[in-house]
Amino acid sequence: MSPTIESAEHKALRSAVAALGQRYGREYLARVAREGGHPDELWADAAKLGYLGVNLPEAYGGGGSGIAELAIVLEELGAAGCPLLMMVVSPAICGTVIARFGTDDQKRTWLPGLADGSRTMAFGITEPDAGSNSHRITTTARRDGDDWILTGRKVFISGVDIADATLIVGRTEDARTGRLKPCLFIVPRDTPGFGRSVIDMELQAAEKQFELTLDEVRLPASALVGDEDAGLLQLFAGLNPERIMTAAFAIGMGRYALARAIEYAKTRQVWKEPIGAHQAVAHPLAQAHIELELARLMTQKAAALYDAGDDMGAGEAANMAKYAAGEACVRAVDQSVHTLGGNGLTREYGLASLITASRVARIAPVSREMILNFVSHQSLGLPKSY
């Protein structure tokens, strides 16, 4: 089956998840965020229906499917106004990395809980001074007997307060070359020396952002995920799903905003006809719809390549999908708010807060400029500027 033509199973999954999302909706998520809570009820229901672990191996309680199916779940929840951001992190990044590279003990310990939603894991890569440059990560891990000692800082890490552990990207010294190489460590939430502080965000969301400090954090040898020498292979096994899921998150948000604008344009009447009859209103909404659909096609391609085991092909497509979806989401939200005029800025219609939220997909987990760098270097073969 071509990834551009969805199978009957995928269509059925979309329909089922959409029905779940409609039972909750944007008002539920907005209320949870205002009250400083977490969408525990939605998370539990999604888990009970098998949606959270749809991409994880059946042997550990998952659905045995792939990132394509997990992306559908997140997109449809987003289109209903209630996306679960931790899906990007816990099952997509951490679950994928552990399933592919973890030890048997790590798989037994973590995957069943990640699949049924009873456990969550955060992901820590971004640092204050490194930004999007993973080669400048300064969190280091050194051996001390059989243990590892981690030291460093992380910033803009989602959901650490509710996560049972955080998958931390550190760097170890290669004994042969002396160069630092990336490695992944599971750090339980209450590990001594592992500190966190909330970042005061203008964006109102249920998932809080944190700055982390790792002050001589001692970890057993079993905390290292996979092969110490695998380096970037293991890291990008998590980053490609992250980009695909971010694209799905953005497409869902854009669809939600567009649906509200279309409903308004069909019923809002100022002169003789509803405002949606005027091309100045209709055409920008049609354009936004086209851009979201094109972004979805690239997201489907990226997911299909990843699930087929083509990491290199998936890397290019996942970056393109994330770029396209981020741009389409921002434009869809902007046009939707504009269509409603003053009503687009009221709490009643629930669109104004998306003006800020939609920017996330342009900025995180990698900026659009860094994606353009990737495409210009890797796809076009142009020389690097840095």
Written description of the protein model:
By secondary structure, the protein is an alpha+beta fold. The chain has 11 helices and 8 strands. The protein has helices spanning 8-34, 40-48, 67-79, 86-101, 104-116, 232-267, 279-307, 311-340, 352-357, 360-363, 368-379, and strands spanning 121-124, 140-144, 147-158, 165-173, 180-188, 194-198, 209-219, 224-225. Strands 1-4-5-8 form a 4-stranded mixed sheet, covered by helices on one side. The chain has a 4-stranded antiparallel sheet with strand order 2-3-7-6, with no helix packed on it. Helix 4 runs antiparallel to helix 5, helix 4 (86-101) packs antiparallel against helix 6 and helix 6 runs parallel beside helix 8 (311-340). The protein is globular. The two termini are 41 Å apart. The model has no long low-confidence stretch (mean pLDDT 93).
Q: What are the main properties of this structure?
A:
about 375 residues, alpha+beta, 4-stranded mixed sheet, 4-stranded antiparallel sheet, 11 helices, 8 strands, globular
